[in-house]
Design goal:
single chain; alpha/beta; FAD/NAD(P)-binding domain; 2 domains; 6-stranded mixed beta sheet; 14 helices; binds flavin-adenine dinucleotide
Length: 446
């Protein structure tokens, strides 16, 4: 029997590990709770109507269709037996278990509301296609409902968008909502003036985009302000409800912002599976709940198990795509090396390829080695890098077409929201007495 490698997760870590094992004499079983490989950095473009879900989330089995040693299975892993070397996964039809000789765990991270999980209902995060489509529904519905209202206070509330968290995701989201409102939608409505839309970016910290250093983050802030985004730093969110948010500024003054659409881009925490693994193996977790791994990224006491990507804690490496990609490739190399009888353990050395954030069309900031740049040059670099890492030729082509529609033109090719999203979502269902709901069903008639 050939060596069996189980990989959990079809994100950057899991997929790149599977691909790095394509020529190895192993049988791979890749299990993930979604059927796609998700390119998370572009989720905000699905939420704001630029890209379709399919462009950033190709089917994993399609990507691996020519890799005959890889079996792709749908399933949410819920249990490990590290001694018996089995994992158990669950799907709608029931549970199943598989056995492994080597295991790569790459289940990523989850959204963190810093202990305020009830905020999630009012301010969705952005970790999945479901999240992005939920946000798309809330963003476009807000304009639709504002067009229906005759109440100025209600219109203001519906046309105020608040993004919590001024990291890369929050900045990109704020920039895109501002461009959507102030540019794309301007001539689409008759009653409301979408240029009056308020986009507010909040963060409890006193700086935004901390990793980029002050000069670049200041440039990004200026660009956001040019787009009409209100950036409020030192503003801690202490409450969120249907109608708005309560914040406390750094001088302890409380404020209330009335806003229909709130978006949470503030934090991540480890996947819940890390606790299961730690309980079985005795591995330690860091303060973010990630698993402290050995230098070669293996689980302490288990040289046959690798923990990679966002769930790995090693030398304070950040939770970014390149750490997961390089971690996946490294784990694959270690498995191949062990199969050849070499039991030595090579430490995982991360090669930092830099960071980029796009603020608006034709404007990004980039920090790559000694290069720190902002503007159209950085934006072109951002464009090139994202095209290279998008999986699949057809996705690259359609993504480029959609970018042309949105950035060269002013359209958004993917504005579809379902009727269910318009009428059923919790954040917009409480419309107040003033706004008629055109889809309301007379209960007596049912
Ligand atoms: C909105 C957003 C924007 C980002 N932007 C950038 C960026 O610009 N640049 C950058 O470098 N990084 C960015 N990141 C971070 C980057 O996407 C992550 O660091 C990277 O995806 C981590 O890869 P991973 O393989 O560890 O986890 P993920 O890519 O999250 O993959 C996790 C996989 O595990 C599966 N899974 C989870 N739980 C289970 C389970 N119990 N059973 C089975 N399968 C499971 C999931 O379905 C998924 O397939 C961004 C992240 C987000 C959310």
């Amino acid at each position: 029997m050939r060596h069996r490698v189980a990989i959990i997760g079809s994100g950057f870590g899991g997929l790149f590990a599977a691909q790095a094992l394509r020529k190895a004499p192993v049988d791979i079983t890749l299990i993930a709770k979604t059927t796609h490989h998700l390119f998370q950095p572009l989720l905000y473009q699905v939420a704001t109507g630029i890209l379709s879900p399919g462009e950033i989330a190709p089917a994993t089995r399609e990507i691996l269709r020519r890799q005959k040693n890889a079996l792709v299975l749908l399933g949410e892993v819920i249990e490990f037996d590290l001694a018996a070397k089995t994992i158990t996964a669950v799907v709608a039809s029931g549970e199943y278990s598989i056995e492994y000789d080597s295991l790569i765990i790459a289940v990523g991270a989850s959204q963190s509301y810093f202990g305020n999980d009830h905020f999630a209902q009012f301010a969705p995060g952005m970790k999945s296609i479901d999240d992005a489509l939920e946000l798309r529904g809330r963003i476009f519905s807000s304009f639709e409902l504002a067009e229906l209202s005759d109440n100025a206070t209600e219109i203001n509330r519906l046309m105020t968008f608040v993004i919590v968290g001024a990291g890369p995701t929050g900045v990109e989201m704020a920039g895109q909502i501002a461009e959507l409102a102030h540019r794309t939608l301007v001539s689409d409505f008759r009653k409301i003036d979408t240029r009056a839309t308020r986009v507010i970016l909040l963060d409890a910290a006193s700086t935004m985009l901390g990793n980029f250093g002050t000069p670049l983050s200041e440039k990004a802030k200026l660009q956001l302000e040019r787009l009409g985004v209100e950036v409020r730093l030192g503003a801690k969110v202490v409450g969120i409800d249907h109608n708005g948010l309560d914040i406390i500024s750094s001088d302890s003054t409380p404020h209330r912002i009335e806003a229909s659409c709130k978006i949470w881009a503030a934090g991540v925490m480890a996947n819940p599976l890390t606790k299961t693994i730690a309980a079985q193996s005795g591995a330690q977790l860091d303060s973010a709940g990630r698993i402290l791994v050995e230098l070669d990224s293996s689980l302490p006491g288990h040289p046959e198990i690798f923990v990679i990507g966002d769930m790995m804690s090693l030398k304070h490496l950040p939770g970014v795509a390149q750490v997961a990609i390089q971690g996946g490739r490294h784990a694959a190399k270690q498995i191949i090396k062990r199969l050849k009888g070499d039991k030595s353990r090579t430490p995982f050395e991360y090669r930092d390829k830099g960071s980029m954030v796009t603020v608006s069309r034709f404007y990004a900031i980039a920090s790559i080695g000694k290069i720190h740049t902002a503007g159209i040059g950085a934006w072109l670099m951002w464009l090139g890098v994202h095209i290279v890492y998008l999986i699949g030729f057809k996705h690259r082509v359609t993504t480029l077409l959609h970018w042309a529609v949105s950035f060269v033109g002013s359209g958004r090719a993917e504005r579809v929201i379902t009727q269910q999203q318009i009428i059923a979502r919790s954040a917009i269902e409480r419309l107040g007495d003033q706004v008629p709901n055109p889809y309301s069903v007379d209960e007596d008639s049912e």
